[in-house]
Design a protein that fits this description.
The structure is a homotrimer.
Chain A (H helix, E strand, L loop, with lengths): L1 H16 L4 H23 L5 H4 L1 H16 L1 H6 L1 H25 L4 H22 L13 H16 L4 H22 L13
Helix pairs in contact in A: 1-2, 1-4, 1-6, 1-7, 2-4, 2-7, 6-7, 6-8, 6-9, 7-8, 8-9
Chain lengths: 197, 197, 197
């Protein structure tokens, strides 16, 4: 739920910065917080998604969206805190996403990918709806830590480790890598040569 | 079917105005008319969607798309009529969407949201495919009436009212609010302060 | 698999030309190669999609994405070859997409449409994620051959022809039409009058 809240705040912030209305803030909060899990559940055929069966999941992005819409100058100043919590959300989602895929009997490679999709999918829908190219495409090291964390979950689960160890290892891998990338300014490889579009 | 037709006309109009080809007119007509219901059915796991099981649903957007593509100068002049019928479509879809979600056993909060998604989802896909930020994000009161109509459906259904009364009340709520918003120029709240992107 | 590979190369090429990072190249390769089939399977309720059950499907776009990212100046020069293979992929996908829909008991009209969606859907997601209006909307004769090929598959299957004949006829129809459109520069009808957006 903390993960959903933080992701939802980033969604609402994008809406406010694009000067969209309060409905956009709520929708972008909702898709950012819940979208990744929706994609995973739809692809796995595990419908309706958990968030539609328990209404409390739905109140979290609504609250996050309204709070951000009203207090956005304050939230905007807390950008570093949001980025930090966003890294926690990322680590949380890649672990739960991969764990759910594994528990539904998917093979290891798709399970790791679905863990990553759970973590970054919501943000990609947010960016497409807000009319911009997904920020994860722009050289920030964001999806790679999520994939790494999900892969750790899958591998350790195969090795028979207990869920607590599996989750802790995946979470730490993703969070550590992401924070290091933030602190050191690591960038993903870009294509050689000038852009020609 | 009337709702699908009107929504499909708005989709094809967007294609024509962006100077896209006849295929785009058909696709945008199709996603606008059927997209909201597809999202609802996929999230509910009620697949394949009804529109894929009865080919007559599919002919409606094709007809609407072709007619709009050929006669678009005329349709463009009838913009006010289209907007009026679009409000009818909105009211119709939020009621049928919420009713279907309730009949499939979803809880009240998600059912109301799915009613709104059925009504506005097609238009959002249309706008994303046409390369623009969804118009529902831009301060027009469009999604809120749909959510209100869907909520009325859910509440009255819980209270045990007959389907005719439930549907009529939800339809009237959404249509009335939307038409009032159009006539009086009501706007959704925008964020305070200047846009900073 | 050849079809997935070629489609994935076009996805990665778009990422490189937009100067996006290596992750974007992999994601766009993945959605272009597999996205059409995912949409079809999700709409049909045939989840999880085949590509998630057999990890070899997933390695194809990864390989295509990495190769294109590293050797993109060479791949860019081979644009004509890519376009040629892309036509093969299109013909292959519309046939397999329509055949799968028919085998799952969908009616003829939706089956033909799903064949087309399998062939062009991945490219449309690619373009939306890359922040541009889908190229299939821009007057190139691309979706129409796919629809024709899928329709041939559906009609011949109804007539009781063997799968080999059905597949060969659909494949030839789509490929022939697409190649003729490329060679002769055929264009889809555009709306009359000037663009007014």
């Amino acid at each position: 739920m903390v993960g959903i809240f933080v992701f939802a705040v980033t969604g609402a912030l994008v809406a406010v910065r694009k000067h969209l209305d309060v409905f956009a803030a709520l929708v972008l909060a909702g898709v950012t917080g819940l979208g990744g899990g929706f994609i995973r559940d739809v692809l796995l055929g595990a419908t309706p998604p958990a968030a539609l069966e328990d209404w409390r999941y739905l109140t979290v992005p609504v609250a996050a969206g309204l709070l951000t819409f009203v207090f956005h100058p304050t939230v905007g100043r807390l950008e570093r805190v949001v980025t930090l919590f966003d890294a926690f959300g990322l680590a949380l989602f890649c672990v739960t996403g991969a764990a759910k895929a594994v528990s539904l009997g998917v093979g290891p490679v798709p399970a790791a990918l679905l863990g990553m999709v759970t973590a970054v999918g919501g943000g990609m829908i947010r960016d497409v709806l807000a009319g911009r190219v997904p920020v994860v495409f722009d050289g920030v090291l964001y999806a790679t830590p999520a994939l790494a964390g999900a892969a750790v979950v899958v591998v350790l689960d195969r090795a028979g480790a207990s869920f607590a160890i599996v989750a802790a290892a995946g979470f730490t891998t993703c969070l550590g890598w992401r924070l290091l990338a933030l602190v050191r300014g690591w960038r993903a490889p870009m294509p050689r040569g000038p852009a020609n579009v």
